[in-house]
Design goal:
Number of strands: 18
Strand content: 15-25%
Distance between the termini: 26 Å
CATH architecture of the largest domain: 3-Layer(aba) Sandwich
Structural class: alpha/beta
CATH class of the largest domain: Alpha Beta
Strand order of the largest sheet: 10-11-16-15-14-17
Shape: elongated
Helix content: 25-40%
Radius of gyration: 25 Å
CATH topology of the largest domain: L-fucose Isomerase, Chain A, domain 2
Length: 438
């Protein structure tokens, strides 16, 4: 389910144009907005025409905790109006223009697009760049989805268990920069906080039965399966009790030795149930998965750009066995193995299903943030490796994509989810003033 957002909506007009028809259109648009998934509408009644009305409208919306402001140019209007509202609200703005009505006696009836142009110019030249403009009979839903990203991040609680993995300096973050850019505070927990968490026997037994049902288990022993079940219960209870939206985990080198198994397969199981768990202490990977889910991406997970085939123009998106187990292709055997962590495992092994996928990473370099975006199609393949993986042919040559990742120093993990989710992140990056790499 997409993230809930609250929209403030106002319709601007001037009585030298067909303002009465504009108000009828406004009322129809409000009915349309009420039908949108996971959207609450706070609308200013009637038309806003004079500057004092704009100030009153801003005051009305200021107390409604809106995520973004929809400014409909019902007709051409005074340039004061949008500026008066931005002065108070300081929210991302959608400048919405209406298609022109049939001429009436040779006169332009709305001149709405010119109103959008006026507002955009005024905002831009005043240094306000967080606006998006569209013209049409329905709202720009990608802009609404961009607001969902910001709302989801602001509402999330993100934790890091242990630290980043050994030597993965590129996954390090500046905590207060994440707070400044996204409103996220990071909570730190020690590995033992999960290892020592209570795991009721009945819940462990239920997980054991589930594991045997989901996986072929001949490569692991009963003790490892029990450990996997215990860890799944501990992660599940810990994140729920702490109210954690996403948890980045230092999954090596201490985990297998200290707990008895690696956490990969337990993470695969829980991610198939909607948990967001990031490998190797990758906080920005966890944030990227939260963002994917906010716009409707189901079961996002992290992968490595592991292998590149320039001749066949595809990449292998691989990781050691954490992808959500419900995303297996249905053709290969979904199994557990203990190859990882010096034979302690336990990892999930399967090929991921076919489909169209989107790739995302929010990535910092110093205090600057960038957004990596890509999309492609999964190429069916045989199960030849340990871990979880898919082969993808991207919409641009894989050589070019790799070059962009390398030249920009983007970290080696990214979130992947099934579906097309690109434009909301372009808009979100524009609102935030972040660079887009694609």
């Amino acid at each position: 389910m997409k993230q809930l957002v609250r929209l403030g909506v106002v319709c601007l007009a001037r009585k030298t144009f067909d303002y009465q028809e504009a108000e009828k259109i406004y009322n129809r648009l409000l009915e349309h907005l009420q039908e949108l998934e996971q959207v609450e509408v706070e609308a200013v009644p009637g038309l806003t025409i004079e500057p004092d009305e704009a100030r009153k409208a801003a005051g009305y919306l200021a107390g409604r905790d809106i995520d973004g402001l929809v400014v409909i140019s019902g007709t051409f209007h005074l340039g004061h109006l949008a500026l008066e509202m931005d002065k108070v609200l300081h929210k991302p703005i959608l400048l919405w223009g209406l298609p022109e009505l049939p001429y009436n006696g040779g006169k332009i009836r709305l001149n709405s697009v010119c109103g959008v142009n006026l507002n955009a110019s005024n905002l831009y030249k005043s240094g306000v760049r967080n606006y998006t403009a569209s013209v049409g009979e329905s709202i720009h839903e990608d802009w609404v989805d961009a607001l969902r990203i910001a709302a989801a991040l602001k509402e999330s609680r993100i934790g890091i268990l242990g630290f980043r993995a050994k030597g993965f300096f590129n996954l390090g973050v500046y905590d207060l920069n994440i707070y400044h850019e996204m409103g996220l505070l990071i909570d730190h927990f020690e590995l033992n906080d999960v290892w020592s968490y209570e795991a009721p026997e009945d819940q462990v037994d239920a997980r054991i039965a589930q594991i045997y049902e989901l996986f072929e288990t001949s490569d692991v022993n009963d003790g490892q399966i029990r450990k996997m079940a215990e860890l799944a219960v501990k992660f599940d209870r810990f994140t729920d009790d702490q109210g954690i939206t996403a948890l980045a985990i230092r999954c090596w080198p201490e985990f297998a030795e200290g707990f008895g198994i690696a956490p990969c397969a337990a993470m695969s199981l829980l991610q198939s149930e909607g948990k967001i768990l990031a490998c190797e202490g990758d906080l920005e990977g966890a944030v990227s998965m939260i963002a994917h889910r906010a716009v409707g991406g189901e079961f996002p997970y992290l992968f490595d750009f592991s292998q590149i085939d320039f001749e066949q123009n595809h990449a292998l998106l691989w990781h050691c066995g954490v992808a959500p187990c419900n995303l297996a292709d249905g053709r290969c055997v979904r199994s557990l193995s203990s190859y990882h962590a010096g034979g302690k495992g336990v990892t999930a092994d399967f090929v991921l299903k076919d489909g169209h996928v989107s790739v995302l990473r929010f990535d910092s370099a110093g205090t600057d943030y960038r957004v990596l975006l890509a999309e492609g199609d999964v190429i069916p393949m045989e199960k030849e490796l340990r871990g979880t993986y898919m082969k993808v042919r991207f919409s641009i040559p894989v050589r070019d994509l790799l070059q962009k990742v390398i030249d920009n120093g983007v970290a080696h993990h990214a979130s992947v989810t099934y579906g097309t989710f690109l434009e909301p992140f372009r808009i979100f990056a524009k609102i935030k003033g972040w660079e887009v790499i694609e």
